[in-house]
Amino acid sequence: MRIYLDHNSTTPVHSAVVTAVRTALEQQFGNASSVHFFGQNAKTVVDNARASVATLIGAGPQEIVFTSGGTESDNLAIRGVAESTALTNRRHLITSSIEHEAVLQTFKALSKRGWKTTLVPVGQSGIVESEALEAAITDDTALVSIMHANNEIGTIQPLAALAEIAHRHGALFHTDAVQSVGKLNIAVADLDIDLLSLSAHKFYGPKGIGALWIRRGSRLVSTSTGGKQERNRRAGTENVPGIAGLGIASRLALQNTASDAEHISTLRDKLETKILQTVPGTIVNGDPSKRISNTTNISFDRVEAESLLIALDLEGVAVSTGSACSSGTLEPSHVLRAMGFAAHRSQNSIRFSLGSDNTSEEIDRVIDILPKLVQKLRNVSRASISPKQQTVTVGK
Q: Annotated catalytic, 325?
C-alpha cells in the first residue's frame, strides 16, 4: 500500500483535468493569438478557463493573468509593483518572515537593487499580528506581501485586517494564496486585497500553470517583454493545455471545496490526535485552530525528521519535512525558526498534508506503524550518544 500525505507539495491530477489537457493537446492546438479557426478555438479554451479561475476567487475575468505557476505569479506581483513605483518615494516593501522562498528570495533580490525591505516577525502561533505590521509600515511602503496560508504549518493569516493597514498607508497588498485556493472558499473582495497568486498543481491541476489576480486599477509593470498577450502583462504564447487544465481544476474546486474540507479535516484530526496520544514527546507546531483543514506539522522529540521521513517512505508513506522547494537541504525549517523555536525542534518536525483521495484506512495504517518507527529511531539515537546528551525536551 502506498499512502500519499504530501499534498502541499503537489496533488494528484484529477481525471477530468487529464482529459481536458489531452483534448487541448490533440484538438485545440492552435495559437490563441491567431485569428483563424484553430487560433480562435484555442482562445475559447483560454477565455473559458479565465472565467472559471475568476469565478473561483470571486474576481472578474479581465483581472486574471495566466503564468507558469505560483513562483512566477509572486515575482510578477512583487517586482511589477516595485518597478511601477521605482521613480517615486515609495521604495519600501514588507513581507513576513515565514513566507515561501518565491517571496523571500524576490525580496532579497530587490533589496540588492536599492529597495528597502522589512520582514515582519511572527510568534509561536505563526500568525502575523496587526501590531507587527503597524510597527513596520511607513508612508514610503509600496507593497505588503503576506501569504494566505502557510505551506509548512497551515496557519491562515488575517488578510483583511492586514490589508486595511496597508491601504491606510497607501500601499498595495499582495497575497501568496497557493496553499489556500482550492482548500478555502475565497472571495477577493472580502479579503480587501489587490493581488493574489495561485497555482494549479496545488488543487488537482497540472504543474507549470498558475495565475495572478490583479485588482482592476492596481499599478503593475510587466516583468517580461515580447508580445501583447495577457493584456500586455505577461508576454509569451499561452500554454493552452495547461490553462485548460487549470480551468477544469478551478471548476472542480468551486464545486468540491466545502465537502472536501470536511472530509479531509476529519482525517487530519484523527491522524493528529492519535499521534499525540500514542507517540510520547510530540507537539503540533502553529495555531491549532486558525489553519487550513489538511495540514498538521508535528515535532517528534529526539528524532531527526529526515530519518523519520525515510523510514515512513520505506513503509509506503509519503510525507514531508517542509517546503518541497527546499528539499535536498538539511537546513532547519526557516518557518519554525522564525516562530522562535530552537534548532532541534526545527529539525525534528514532519508535515502531514492530506487530500481528498485519502481514506480512513490509510490513516489507520499510518497510526499503526508510526509509533514503532519513532521508538526504533529513538533507540538508535539513544545508543549513539552518551548518557549526558540524552536529556532533551520538546519545546521552544
A: yes
- Does domain 15-253 correspond to CATH entry 3.40.50.150? no
Residue ranges of domains in the chain:
3-8+258-389, 15-253
What confidence score (pLDDT) does residue 46 get?
A: 98
Q: What does pLDDT average to in each consecutive run of 10 residues of the chain (396 residues)?
A: 97 98 98 97 98 98 98 98 91 98 98 97 96 97 98 98 98 98 97 98 98 96 94 96 98 97 98 98 96 98 96 98 58 90 91 98 98 96 58 44
- Spatial separation of the C-alpha atoms in residues 396 and 357, rounded to whole Å: 35
Residues paired with residue 156 on neighbouring β-strands, in sequence order: 149
Cα–Cα distances in Å, from 377 out to 236, 274, 296, 342, 346?
51, 19, 21, 21, 17
pTM over 0.85: yes
Q: State the catalytic residue, choosing from 51, 86, 119, 325.
A: 325
Q: Do 97 and 338 touch, CB atoms closer than 8 A?
A: yes
Of residues 268, 334, 347, the one with CA closest to residue 301: 347
Q: What is the CATH number that goes with domain 3-8+258-389?
A: 3.90.1150.10
Q: Which of helix, strand or coil describes residue 3?
A: strand
* Parallel, antiparallel or unpaired: strands 116-120 and 92-96: parallel
SS3 state at 64: strand
Helix axes 37-57, 15-27, angle to 10 degrees: 160
C-alpha cell of residue 113: 537593487
